[in-house]
Amino acid sequence: MKQFIDVNERIPLNQGLPLSFQHLFAMFGSTVLVPILVGLDPSIALFAGGLGTLIYILVTKGKIPAYLGSSFAFITPLATVIKTQGIGAALYGALLSGILYVIIALLIAKFGVTWLERLLPPIVVGPIIIVIGLSLAGTAIGMASKSYLVAFVALVIAVLANTYFKGFLAVIPILLGIVGGYLFALTQGIVNLAPIGNARWLQLPHFAAPHISSIAAWTIAPVALVTIAEHIGHLLVTENIVGRNFMKDPGLHRSILGDGIATIVAGAIGGPPTTTYGENIGVMAITRVYSVWVIGGAACIAIAFSFIGKLNALISSIPVPVMGGISILLFGIIAASGLRMLVESKVDFGSKRNLSIASIIMVLGVGNAVFHIHGLEIGNMAIATLVGIVLNLILPDDQKSPSGEKEKLGDKKIA
Question: What is the pTM (predicted TM-score) of this model?
Answer without folding.
Answer: 0.85
